[in-house]
Inverse folding.
């Protein structure tokens, strides 16, 4: 059993304990985070990662920021909160959960400050909001896992990418949560995991979670996905998402888009599992989703060793965008959106009362 991805310790003042995911699978080490800049650093270097998890981490990071300075009044605390939220928001631009976690926590502080609360009460309110975000993420994962398990068949080969399990959330996970839930209920699945270059979330994290749960795992280099799909051993491709545009285009870990193309070519269903908050109705289409570009050293080196000659340039986007037309369906905690397009996504958000968020 791995320690929780993230936990708050104490009240206000308190601190965050994070499992340092950069050291997995070899070493289980916990980080103690006491400042918002410490949280920003942990998010930036992927000590904590995965869209839902960084949404929760951002909210708690804001609470840390609010307890760092003595302020004379609520207005000064609010100004501190806005500054803190702005640099936390800049750590990773693609996952909308981070923006939502920060905005929601800040909005709570704003509301209570307008109602006359003093700085200490505002800090406690921010902590209560961050805790609520964590609980809601856990519950959303549970419901996605239940909702999605009907997509799987006994004995089936499932291909997944990156890590969408407990390490990427504060619950059981999204796409991987579906697999784990089905496995716990006795379904025999053969799970194929792309290693997910360059940072190897598939091999380091997903394979670890699946093996810990006793699931059969086959690891593949990302470039072997075409051969695997052509072999007919995959019945379904199941991935997560960092942000979904209003028209159903899906931003997820780099390498997801080629999997969707391959799935279409080989007539294999391609499902995306994500909490509703991942859908960003303010973004009309995938081309407007900000895609994080990461440093060249992630590609030039492997395991601390240089693997390319001097003088080469590097293209290292952390995410890609899969067009909605390649997506068989989106699984959320409130049900599925089959064959997503703008009409179906907007109608779904209306039905869930989330169209204005
Ligand atoms: O760069 P990462 O490891 O944060 O990327 C994670 C992914 O792309 C996941 O698929 C996504 O965040 C969904 S996690 C439930």
């Amino acid at each position: 059993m791995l320690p929780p991805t993230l936990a708050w310790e104490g009240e206000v003042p308190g601190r965050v304990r994070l499992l340092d995911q950069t050291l997995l699978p070899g070493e289980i080490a916990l980080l103690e985070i006491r400042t918002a800049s410490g949280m920003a650093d942990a998010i930036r270097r992927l000590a904590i990662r995965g869209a839902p998890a960084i949404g929760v981490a951002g909210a708690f990071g804001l609470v840390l920021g609010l307890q760092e300075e003595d302020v004379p009044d609520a207005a000064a605390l609010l100004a501190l909160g806005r500054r803190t939220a702005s640099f936390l928001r800049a750590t990773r631009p693609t996952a909308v959960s981070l923006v939502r976690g920060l905005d929601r926590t800040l909005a709570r502080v704003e509301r209570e400050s307008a109602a006359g609360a003093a700085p200490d009460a505002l800090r406690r309110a921010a902590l209560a909001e961050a805790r609520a975000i964590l609980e809601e993420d856990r519950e959303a994962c549970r419901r996605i896992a239940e909702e999605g398990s009907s997509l799987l068949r006994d004995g089936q080969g499932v291909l997944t990418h990156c890590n969408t399990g407990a390490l990427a959330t504060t619950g059981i996970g999204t796409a991987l949560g579906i697999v784990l839930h089905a496995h716990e209920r006795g379904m025999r699945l053969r799970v194929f995991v792309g290693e997910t270059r360059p940072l190897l979330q598939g091999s380091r994290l997903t394979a670890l979670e699946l093996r810990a749960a006793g699931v059969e795992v086959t690891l593949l280099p990302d470039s072997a996905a075409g051969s695997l799909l052509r072999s007919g051993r995959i019945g379904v491709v199941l991935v997560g998402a960092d942000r979904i545009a209003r028209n159903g285009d899906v931003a997820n870990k780099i390498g997801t888009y080629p999997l969707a193309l391959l799935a279409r070519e080989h007539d294999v269903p391609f499902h995306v599992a994500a909490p509703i908050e991942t859908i960003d109705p303010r973004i009309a289409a995938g081309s407007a989703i900000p895609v994080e570009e990461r440093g060249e050293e992630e590609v030039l080196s492997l395991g601390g060793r240089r693997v390319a000659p001097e003088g080469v340039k590097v293209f290292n986007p952390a995410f890609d965008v899969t067009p909605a037309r390649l997506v068989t369906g989106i699984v959320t905690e409130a049900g599925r959106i089959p064959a997503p397009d703008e009409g179906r996504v907007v109608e779904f958000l209306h039905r869930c009362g989330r169209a204005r968020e």
User: Anything to note?
Assistant: The first helix runs from residue 36 to 44. The chain has a mean pLDDT of 97. DSSP finds eleven helices and 16 strands in the chain.
